[in-house]
Design a protein that fits this description.
heterodimer, A: 213 residues, globular, B: alpha/beta, Rossmann fold, 7-stranded parallel sheet, 6-stranded parallel sheet, 31 helices, 17% strand
Amino acid sequence: MQIEIRENHFLLLSQKAIFWQETQTLLIGDLHLGKITHFRKEGIAVPYIAADNNFERLNEIVRNTGATRIIFLGDLFHNKYNAEWETFRAWRSQHFYIEMIIVIGNHDVLPVSMFLEADLQVFVDDFEEENFVFTHHPKVEPDPSKFVFAGHVHPVFTTYGKGRQSLRLPCFVVDQNQAILPSFGVFTGGFQMELVDNRKIYITTETKVFSVG
Amino acid sequence: MTRSRGHIIVEQWFKYKKWKWAAFQKEAAEAYLSGKSGLVNAPTGSGKTYSLWIPFLIRYINSLPKNPAKRSKGLQILWVTPLRALSKDLFRNMEAAALEMNLNLRIGVRSGDTSTKERASQKKQMPEALLITPESLHLLFAQKGSAETFKNLHTIVVDEWHELMGSKRGTQTELAIARLRTINPHLQTWGISATIGNLEEAKQVLVGMDSAEEGNVIIKAKTEKKIIVESILPERVETLPWAGYMGTKLVDYVVNIVKKSKTTLIFTNTRSQAEVWYRTVIEKYPEFAGIMALHHASLDREVRDWVEEALHQERLKLVICTASLDLGVDFRPVDTVIQVGSPKSIARFIQRAGRSGHQPGVASKIYFCPTNALELVEAVSLRDGVANKMIEDRPPVIHAFDVLVQWMITLAVGGGFEEQQLFEEVRNCYGYQFINRQEWEWLLGYITTGSPSLEVYDEYKKVERIDGKYVVTSRRIAHRHMLSMGTIVSDTVLKVKFQHGKYIGSIEENFATRMKAGDTFYFAGMSLEFVRIHEMTVTVKKAEGKKGFLIRWAGSRMALSSQLSTFIRDRIDTSLENPLNEKELTKLKPLLDLQRERSAVPKKTELLIEQFETREGHHIFVFPFEGRLVHEGMAIILAYRISKLSPITFSLAMNDYGFELLSDQYVDLEKVMEQIDLFSTAHLVDDIYQSVNATEMAKRKFREIAAIAGLMFQGYPGKFMKTKQVQASSSLLFTVMTKYETNNLLVNQAYQEVLTYQLEEVRMRTALDRIATQKIIIKKTRKPTPFSFPIMVDRLREQLTSEKLEDRIQKMLKQYSNAD
């Protein structure tokens, strides 16, 4: 689904990412790579195969969009170093021709040098370009002259229907001056969002994005 | 009986106490002293403790050598109790007997409340007798050298076995006993149980699979206690609501009874209900301040201890309680028991009735206070059930892999285990008798490589295999395991305390996080103002007179037992012909008339179905009167079978009388029933599996399983720990495990638990067979009926769909835009 923000065009992808058409840039929030291995190291037996799914979906959107740049909106890697980082580096070198940027999130505790080594540009707080700000934590009062893209909250939305039906799905949240992306990672939870004035919500299934309200 | 030294001392003691051996006590002593194992079936207050404690003392005395210095030290008897609270009273009684016989015998207590100092001293030298909870017993096995601790143990007694057996704590007990039997093959295992339908099975679970028939016995106390059941009836049936479960409308009637009695216990079915009743009574009858108390499981132990002590000392006229007072010691002053709302089981009702009238020869009297009109039928049925002594079974838990995983890790922490030996041991447990080698290997893989195979190796670390032994070497893993062992509850609870530091009790996190400073809520019979939440503690202050929120605790609603539902069907059947047979039904007549006017009152040979339409959609109500669990199963089966015909989504609700399928589409039931047999038992298991799959039921069951199997570490209850990095919700774990792993035994267990305990497949099959012989009556109604209304207003709903996700969203979103 395409939406327009400040005269720029953004595709909301059902793989839970955004493609910024003018700059051929993919925006990806909260990948939480390494989380599965982190759990396993702590003796919690999450199936390790699940980690592969993240890369399958990454490959799919890179292929489909032909993006030349990716901005990771924080929480790329969950907690301390583990073997999944190497899988990510291998994936990174396969896609050497793509420019990659990370704004650091609260779970990104790896030393900055490791991101640099993996050929990522690192922004500790915000990354700004034109009138757009890319960051991890959503702004409480975003500056109206700019537009913010953020992650962190893992938004989900519940729709209700006749016959007391309800459905809870990941969503994109688009406010006047800020958009929040759903979390990209397979092994992440969700935080319930409400529909308020001047807010658009886009829920997504694995195949399609829908606009709500 | 041979007159050993022990016998002589005991007989002197009996003489001194001016007591006589009851027949069952004598019988138990003989069986015990001849080396047998078994089960003592006796009610609370009958001297059941002494039936095994005294024979143990006889054995103890006879085993004492002439020279006291040569006395062998160490643990000889374990006494397992389900509640820490019980151990205090047991300890008093046991110690009194030992002291009065001049025995130098140490008795210890071990539970979550035992101080570190006491633990350390026990570690150095175990007392001869130890009172313990199942969780604490498992913790002993997590210590190094547990075999040494138990090497002189010759007897284990499990108190209130009927209560433990039906739960996973019963399974814990089974596993521990099996291990103790490996350490000492001559271990004598005894249980003490109230009357349940399956006593024989209860004994079998206790003594294990390979115990010889002649080596164990059931000993029954002959105590014919008369129970009088009386319903509290309003002047007019209109006083009672059609739906609802609080029952405070009848508070005046109830207080009248309380005033006429010396001491009354009011049993409610939920904690919220107890809180509401407390508040209602104090508001209408302020004179009860100071002589009334509240008792439920979320109140601080100290508060509960105080209430129990005050009950003993006759300082209280009224205690409003939940199942928290079902078990344990007798409160002699109690002469009246009132049950608010249906207890749903005859056994539970009888047990509660038994909390009054302890004087010999005095009947136990229990009042039943209905909370809604239809419960009047249950009142009559309860009386039938008590009169006919229809006691329900307590089925033991089978194939609880989560508990087994926890146990394996416990043993690995406490010095390790050899898998072949443990496998044999586990297979000797009733609850795991059918476990096969393949499942066992999956479990070994799960704890060592975190995957179904033993070969895969990545960074997963929990149990390691060293020199043929399975052990935990990481101190961190061991520590974390010990902390999470006791917590079979999977909800995070927060402590509640006053600003000056006094603890009041605990509430669930999801309630606490919805509060903000200044909000008021009712808890522990007080109105409290929320001050702040910090490090797993909620600080409050008193808020006099302000209206507040009512806390709701999570917890499943009890379902009508099959025994009770049979009585109810009979009563409904005859209600219209002989309304004057029972006074409850006479009261109910206007309501049944209305039911007949708007729809029908089904005979035993009929199955009633009602259909009608509201703004919410198209409702279908079915009334098999089989209890909510069976209805839940039938509802999903019917919804599934209808949904196979064409894409449709249902939301489902149920109570003990019937269930509802609600949809945004009309279903032509006559036509559906021409096409398929909705109530058929053919392909039942397959259909259940498919339909459970289409709902969230297994996912919800997985919560508890994940917590027990150590997938969800939440820190120590009440203590704050930095665990966020390894926290994931059970539903997320379930989703990932289902999607990326086939045949995960813990996921399978969630399905199995839904089938066996939630939907009661066996009962459902019987019910469907019965329905096959019934005539189906479909009534199109214009208004909700007395039968359908309580189900219609229920908000807890399950969904089942055969529509495509995208289509459903499209439809829902269209409704949104229509609303604008």
